[in-house]
Fold this protein.
Amino acid sequence: MEKITGKNNDLIKNVKKLLSSSGYRREQGLFVLEGARLVFDVLNSFYSVKYFFVTDEAYKKYYSQADALMSVSEKSFVISQAVSDKISDTKNSQGIFAVCRMKEDCEITIGCSDKLIALDNVQDPGNLGSIIRTAEALGINAVIVGGGCDIYNPKVLRASMGSVLRMNILQMNHLYPYLGKLKESNMRLYSTSPNRTAQSITEIDFSNGGICVIGNEANGVSDDIISISDGCVTIPMMGRAESLNASAAASITMWEMLR
């Protein structure tokens, strides 16, 4: 393996830019995984690895998994601890990184009885990653992400604990046109709302599938999506809080869809 010790190496600069810039990620069609758990999760995903970076210390600790990753990577590098610290998006780097190719934009297969969660301009990477993780854990068929945070943001990837690599996810700039197409195929669409006059989600029958939309943290679901929804649903709350964090609301919504 080629060794990189200089922090000003052009490839290392590109990796750092991929971690910090969503625009650059989209332009290059690449994203970065950091840390042993996330990096080795890619072995059981449908993503391909362009570059693998590992320090000598990390290789000794994870040599069997590292060898497996090297065998599927286009190119692998040993990096110094100083280079690892420069790349890292965390306080304590584990010395393992993978640059992966994004999936090409494509339609995901959706059945009429599937249960989907759609995210309308969710901005917080922690919320987005946690929602995707919960969706995988509960068995939601797919997550549709419209606008908001990039699913390949390093904080999203960490919060998802690898679920981004395994979950059916469709990302687009705007939800409205795509949800309109799903409505035409007779899928039921519900927008979540903190308004207590909305119908309780516990009263909705999701046995034949459906889509629930979680809105932006500050503004909720956009009016155009509400206009094509079959109704607005709310989570009954007995306390004095007026609303829930987007991730908490999504978790309860998905639980009710699947129970």
Q: What stands out?
A: The longest strand covers residues 73-79. The two ends are 50 Å apart (CA to CA).
